[in-house]
UniProtKB/TrEMBL annotation, chains A, B:
<protein>
    <submittedName>
        <fullName>Dihydroxyacetone kinase subunit DhaK</fullName>
    </submittedName>
</protein>
<dbReference type="GO" id="GO:0005829">
    <property type="term" value="C:cytosol"/>
</dbReference>
<feature type="domain" description="DhaK">
    <location>
        <begin position="7"/>
        <end position="329"/>
    </location>
</feature>
<dbReference type="InterPro" id="IPR050861">
    <property type="entry name" value="Dihydroxyacetone_Kinase"/>
</dbReference>
<keyword id="KW-0418">Kinase</keyword>
<dbReference type="GO" id="GO:0019563">
    <property type="term" value="P:glycerol catabolic process"/>
</dbReference>
<dbReference type="Pfam" id="PF02733">
    <property type="entry name" value="Dak1"/>
</dbReference>
<dbReference type="GO" id="GO:0004371">
    <property type="term" value="F:glycerone kinase activity"/>
</dbReference>
<keyword id="KW-0808">Transferase</keyword>
<dbReference type="InterPro" id="IPR004006">
    <property type="entry name" value="DhaK_dom"/>
</dbReference>
Length: 334, 334
């Protein structure tokens, strides 16, 4: 296990210590060492944005805490949900009196712990409403969309929710925009090599060299097929062919494209893949309004790539265009 | 070879096509398809900043083209210098009449090609001056510092040079600041696993599991020792112990810390390592003014990490603080 760590049991806490020291201009610690907040949160009268989940997906989730993005984050163990108290502490850290939008991914542990945390917050008169991301198309058929997992599309949900809160929308307005963002987003991943959780010491699933797992989840959840390793162009076509009909995205649509490496995928390869995705979308008359290509939502050192598409309308465009600043998704100046 | 590519012979050109499509708000193509420029370059009366080098180090070099950063970049084959004509075309793309600062790394091919390109530019009355980065401490002893390689410290050189040009300094002023930046910077890397060039199809060097190569270059150049794999804390101490005495950095200094993964190193591990670096610097009375932690200068999917430190004065602080915007190093808003 070729890893730069000290103790497999303390990787998350040590990582958080490093994150806090590295970004004092953006992040502040809270009384709960597993909860970090935007240094200017809570902002009085502004809806607070909270997320959380298992660690191991850096820069998600903590990397999306920042200006006009997420206000507080709950950080669980590697690939494990944060307990309810941690979500609750994040609600308290983010609440500026206008309520909290908890925007998170559809996993059993997170659903249970967020629900319990909301009950705890009710006792403090903190109003919390939720949007549950379910953008991962291969994880369930379309008629069971509510059971699909949340993956890299969550980043676009946070971007939209954070921008809407910054514009002064009330809690229902923020929730409606974030819900629209994820309803308009579809994602899919392909895995080429697994990752190893330090405490386990060996990969907890296998991808044979020469093959790829199509539709893999970002915790290594099985995909829809194991196939011979394809070219970037074939992968792009296969993923676009699954994602586009599902919403559907149609000729004339404008979209955000988010390509994320899963950890060890060179950025060089991500741009080659993105180039092929653009060709596939262009051939279908779908226009790219904004692109993100990079390691936005990873799984330790897993090798692979995910594609997320979000269909835009004027409201979503305005949110995507808004200035934001966080380690994971700083907006480029015009 | 688990790679997301189409044709090993065309990875660089396809990557560039993807980069151009992904960032129209920042980058523009030029007549030379291996030269990209900042969309607002050349800027009349402002010194142009040029760099270039072999591809495979994404986001370097093209990722540092942008606002108040690099104006034009020459992109060679994987780990190979761009030919002289490419550097020349980058000079032309960046020249706004105030001359060009070519800020690049100390490799034989780059030295030769930049020199030839400068001769070509002289015929066009384009004045080009250079700074040659040599921040990699383990690559040569201190009394042969001029022979050391340039590595991730180059990013800080570009940041300082770009900021100084944006402030309106003339060519000599930009060159002096960029030279000071690299003179004040020391770097070192540790490798845990090699990378594979697609055209070669297998790793061109070996790092045995359970070992690490201390002082490795980012093309896999041999380091100063192969040792048993250490903890993050031991690695941080070893690297600080090599870097700090070399300048030397002393008690009371303020520094920029730049930690870069080499490609497949999880961000989680990079923050753990950074946490230990901060402890080592703090114990020596060295204060961190600004930190960068991420995949800033990679070598395809190499596993490993580099540490760069830059000693600051007021001029360098002003340059580091200046707003900038490029894919590789967007400044976080205050």
């Amino acid at each position: 296990m070729q890893k730069i760590i000290n103790n497999p049991q303390t990787v998350v806490d040590e990582m958080i210590e490093g994150v806090v020291k590295a970004m004092p201009e953006t992040l502040s610690p809270t009384k709960n060492k597993r909860v970090l907040k935007y240094k200017n949160a809570p902002q009085k009268g502004r809806v607070g944005i909270v997320t959380g989940g298992g660690s191991g997906h850096k820069p998600a989730f903590v990397g999306y805490v920042g200006k006009n993005m997420v206000d507080a984050v709950a950080m669980g163990e590697l690939f494990s949900s944060p307990p309810a108290k941690m979500f609750y502490d994040a609600f308290v850290a983010a609440d500026g009196g206008a309520g909290v939008a908890c925007l998170y991914g559809n996993y059993a542990g997170d659903n249970m712990n967020v629900k319990m945390a909301i009950e705890m917050a009710e006792d403090d008169d903190i109003v919390v409403k939720t949007v549950v991301a379910n953008d991962d198309v291969p994880s369930a058929p379309k008629d069971k969309r509510e059971t699909r997992r949340g993956v890299a599309g969550e980043i676009l949900m946070w971007k939209v929710g954070g921008a809407k809160a910054a514009m002064g929308a009330d809690l229902d307005g923020v929730i409606a925009a974030a819900q629209k963002a994820i309803d308009n987003t579809r994602s899919m991943g392909v895995g080429l090599a697994p990752c190893t959780i330090p405490e386990v010491g060996h990969p907890n699933f296998t991808i044979e060299p020469g093959t790829m797992e199509v539709g893999i989840g970002h915790h290594g959840e099985p995909g829809i097929a194991v196939k011979p390793l394809a070219t970037a162009k074939e992968m792009a076509k296969e993923m676009v062919d699954v994602i586009v009909p599902d919403l559907p995205f149609v000729n004339g649509d404008e979209v955000v494209v988010l390509v994320s490496g899963l950890g060890s995928t060179p950025l060089l390869e991500q741009y080659i893949f993105f180039n092929n995705v653009e060709e596939e979308l262009s051939a279908r008359g779908i226009k790219i309004y904004k692109s993100y290509v990079g390691n936005y939502f990873t799984s330790l050192e897993m090798n692979g790539i995910t594609l997320s598409l979000m269909k835009l309308d004027d409201e979503l465009k305005e949110c995507i265009d808004m200035e934001c600043g966080c380690m994971g998704l700083t907006q480029l100046p015009k």
